[in-house]
Amino acid sequence: MDNQKKNYLLIAAILGASICLRAPLTSVGPLVADIGNEMDASPTLLGLLTTLPVLVFGITSPFINLFGRRFGNYFCVMIGLLFILSGMLLRSAFGLQELFLGTVIMAVGIGVGNVLLPSIIKSSFPSGGGVMTGAYMTMQGIFAGIGAGLSLPLARKLGLGWRVTLLIWAVAAMTAFFLWLPQYREERINKVRSSFQLQRKSEKREKSVWCTSWAWYVTLFLGSQSLLFYSLSNWIPSMLEDRGISAEAISMIATWYQWSGVPTTFLAPILMQKMSNKKLLAAMIGLGYFSGIVALLLAGSSIPLLLLALTLASASGGANYSLSMAMIVLMSKDAREAGELSGMSQCAGYLLAASGPVVSGILYDYSGQWTATLLFYILVTIVLFVSGQLLMRHIPS
Hints:
mainly alpha, 18 helices
């Protein structure tokens, strides 16, 4: 098989895996009320359910990078897809305990893709890392929107219920697994393994990325955005339902929230490489997020204002997320450092983000309204703004 065909197959495999990295999570948010009613679970417990994947990402990320070096990134991604598939089957099949256990297993698989795909892109597309990062981030955004938008109509209008609705994404995981099978060949695994071994022998070990300030800025930039994304994705339907918005409108708004960030997801890494004033790009992201949350606080039940608020938040979040992933690819010297930085930023960043949905549920439980939660989000946008400015100081013009 010639190299060009191999690259096309690898691109298809990366894009196929990216479908499974967000949609199985964003599809849960609109169904939280249905799950809670059937399982008799409180908002705080449901907040824990939606936080579990983010917590798993944070705990497992450093170990995933080590397994990738030991067994090969391609093999680990393929196994990760099997985890996603088995976790989906388990969470939809039985009771509350299996729902949580299946979510954890699925999250481990998603974490594998989150950590290792940037390293694979760094090693396989050295000259087109920014474009490839934007492409797979865009695919995530498109299907995250489909997951958020179709959940309620499928569960309620078509009568599938939340279990079957969530199980639909198992088809995507199975398809992605078969796309990765051609990548798992002995010569490719040996090539990746020997590449890491040669790097370790030929290079003097520099200080760990955990000891560099710019890596922590990447971590805060990614972590604050992830906190906002997972919190909003899971609680927007409940927020809107409390404002008297219909189920049909909630479904449309949830889809709009996911999809309105797709263009900026693709464009942000490209703009970063072209713009001379990179601080301006980070400032636009931070101010956009801040403005979106403030507008959401003030929008009431006005559909146009809600759409405007979520457009600002989503466009900023999409740009932030793909920019963070692009930083991992572009600021790393090689695939080894890209894997280390990916593991670090997603470990600490997602541990920070894991607090978001739980804190959101607790604030709502104690106050009986969403104002306190939205004020908490505003504080997080300030952290995002500051970390973005500090990070861009380390990017050459």
